[in-house]
Write a structure and sequence with these properties.
Elements: E1 2-3, E2 7-11, H1 24-33, E3 38-43, H2 46-57, E4 65-71, E5 74-79, H3 81-90, H4 95-110, H5 117-130
Parallel strand pairs: 2-3, 3-5
Antiparallel strand pairs: 1-2, 4-5
Length: 132
């Protein structure tokens, strides 16, 4: 676990996380949501992810990432590394690259954007900034 003032990363699995997880993720969070935004990122297994997806989105299957704003200044993100590996292959991306791609995607959702061209432009800007 990495405890920054406003960033917590909790790995509840035995999955190997990308090298950049502890340094760049906090920089990404600060760039997109601001330094004062409180974010907890939980790395969870497939069964737990499926349960969250079913409970909150009424979709009874696992997914790679879910983001939940708690209020304007805090949120939670759940990432399933096993499913992320599968999805990375579908998009012909390396695991670490796709993990960071998803993290940026989740941060932009927490910023208040929904899928669409505006969200894609914002994500592209930050992917370029961080070399993703």
């Amino acid at each position: 676990m990495h405890d920054g003032e406003h960033f917590n990363l909790i790995n509840t699995t035995k999955a190997k996380l990308p090298r950049l997880a502890f340094v760049d993720f906090e920089k990404m969070k600060d760039a997109i949501l601001g330094k004062d935004y409180d974010l907890t990122v939980a790395i969870i297994g497939t069964k737990k992810m499926q349960t969250l997806n079913r409970t909150h989105r009424d979709i009874d299957k696992p997914t790679d990432i879910l983001s939940f704003p708690l209020d304007k200044e805090s949120g939670e993100m759940f990432i399933n590394p096993e499913y992320t590996r599968i999805e990375a292959k579908k998009f012909d991306r390396e695991y670490e690259n796709f993990f960071a791609f998803l993290f940026i995607h989740g941060l932009v959702h927490l910023k208040g954007f929904d899928h669409g061209s505006t969200m894609e432009r914002i994500e592209a800007k930050f992917r370029k900034q961080f070399g993703i």
